[in-house]
Amino acid sequence: MRAIVPAYNEEITIAGVVRPLLDAGIFEDVVVVDDGSTDRTAQVAADAGARVLQPPRNLGKGGAMLFGVTNACEGDEVVAFFDADLYGLRPEHAHRLAEGIAKGYDQVCGLRDWGPVQNVIQLGYGPVVTGERMVRRWVLDALPMDCWDGYVIETAMNDVVTRHDGRTAIVFFPGVTLRTKLHKSGFWNGIAGHWKMTREIMATRDALRTSRGASCRR
């Protein structure tokens, strides 16, 4: 099993993601897909022990994930994904995902620590859009190709598992937060980025519903 970490300009946090994943001792490789970064993401990731792949052009999050799966995960029955902008990740968080897979779940999602109120809201009412998850290969193989795009990929994974009567487990990642878009690009650009992501997720859910799972595009 390998861990795929799509990354774009994440030199600040990438080492803090790679090292605990390697320390977990459950991954054959930690693969960072450096998606056209203009900072030192690739070098910092390599120095931390990751295998770094660099697509020929910027692919977006979903495209970078597919590039990693296609170029590094041949024969893997389970693939793990982690975001590159996490704070507080520890080896035991990866083990929590692996324990769920060992119990027979088809995907296991890690819930970041947003505090007691937001955790309950996300768990009980919100879509599971976390980038921290382990999934069985059949889920990835069943994804429509146009779903490997932007921020819609997690929504599409959820749809595949539900539509095929698979099982999803959600585990808590205590102490794990992330460097938000507001921190990366400032207040107004961060708000715009969050709104864009929300619109993409909503449009994807509509497209999957109307196409009966055949497409992420309307």
Question: What's the quick description here?
Answer:
The protein is α/β, with parallel strands linked by helices and 218 residues long. The protein has helices at residues 14-24, 41-47, 60-72, 91-102, 116-124, 137-141, 153-163, 181-185, 187-210; strands at 2-7, 29-34, 51-53, 78-81, 86-87, 107-111, 133-136, 168-172, 177-178. Strand 2, helix 2 and strand 3 form a beta-alpha-beta unit.
Describe the overall structure.
The chain is an alpha/beta fold. The protein has helices at residues 14-24, 41-47, 60-72, 91-102, 116-124, 137-141, 153-163, 181-185, 187-210, and strands at 2-7, 29-34, 51-53, 78-81, 86-87, 107-111, 133-136, 168-172, 177-178. Helix 1 (14-24) links the parallel strand 1 and strand 2. Helix 1 (14-24) crosses helix 4. It is globular. The protein starts with a strand and ends in an 8-residue tail after the last helix. The mean pLDDT is 88.
Broad structural category: alpha/beta
Low-confidence parts lasting 5 or more residues at pLDDT below 50?
Answer: none
Placed side by side, the strands forming the largest sheet appear as 3-2-1-4-7-6-8
| Helix percentage | 40-55%
Number of helices: 9
Per DSSP E runs of 2 or more residues, the count of β-strands stands at 9
Terminal Cα span: 34 Å
Anisotropy-based shape: globular
User: How confident is the prediction overall: mean pLDDT?
Assistant: 88
Task: Indicate the proportion of strand residues.
Answer: 15-25%
Largest sheet: 7 strands, mixed
Instruction: Give the helices and strands as they follow along the chain.
Output: EHEHEHEEHEHEHHEEHH
CA-based gyration radius: 16 Å
